[in-house]
Hints:
Helix content is 43%, strand content 20%. By secondary structure, it is of the alpha/beta class. Strand 3, helix 6 (108-125) and strand 4 (130-135) form a beta-alpha-beta unit. It contains twelve helices and twelve strands.
Amino acid sequence: MNGRYGRDLDLNLLRVFVVVADSGSVTQAAAHLYLTQPAVSAALRRLTSAIGAPLFARRGRGLVLTSRGERLLSDLRPHLQALVDAALAPPQFDPKTSERTLRLGLADSSEQWLLPLLLRELEKEAPRMRLVVVPVQFRTVGEALATRRVDLAVTVADDLPTTIKRQALFTGGFVCLFDPRHAKVKKTLTERVYFDHDHVIVSYNGDLRGVVEDLLQKSRRIRCSVSSFANLGAIVDGSALLATVPKLVADHIRLTRRHLRTTKLPFAFSGSAMELLWPSALDEDDACRFIREKVVRFSKQTGEAGR
């Protein structure tokens, strides 16, 4: 501590001084500072006493700086602005110490392959960060991002507001998943056999229309409709049902049900691209960018492995 701190100079008085100098009026400065006029006058008296020289002189109903006041203002202004900028600057993001909680919207087909990879990476690089995973799909993701119910999302999407940024990740394609012990499917699946079989589908509308009906305008013999891919493996296992699923989902199911099989669909059907979506307001958010970079890297690796 040097002698100036020993004189009990309150640094808040310097801010009051700058505002009075800029406005030329104690009354106006008080309004800007949300203080009373007597409080501002008292602050100026304390600062004058600490400096040891008059800082203002009266001119009519206002105040003007003395030569000592002008010199103080000139020396003080850049330092005061730097302090304000430093105080209001967002904290620097450090993944090793960050305790941010981010809300991640995932299609159920994305959750199975992406979330385990992401959590293992965070355990190593950002052990204090947390994720709240929210289910989204192409009909709900726009509203979830626009209302900030989620900070970023990985799913397929239709038209979105211009305030939502999007990056294509990969198009993994679809396959037919079946249990060879019960479903009569040969090595090459024909269109006739495909449409003669009973199917289990995923429908986010809760009806009997799936991706094949929506995109190809062809109807299957649908025995069961479910709301997610989560239990398709258990449903297909031990049945003659066929399930048309993203290849990534089928690969995940077969990790634990190796006796199930997949085969190519008997028609051209690639599906829509999986996309990374986020609000433009979070484009420069370091924590969100950190997660987005991980998603892009894992998606590239997974897409290449799928191909």
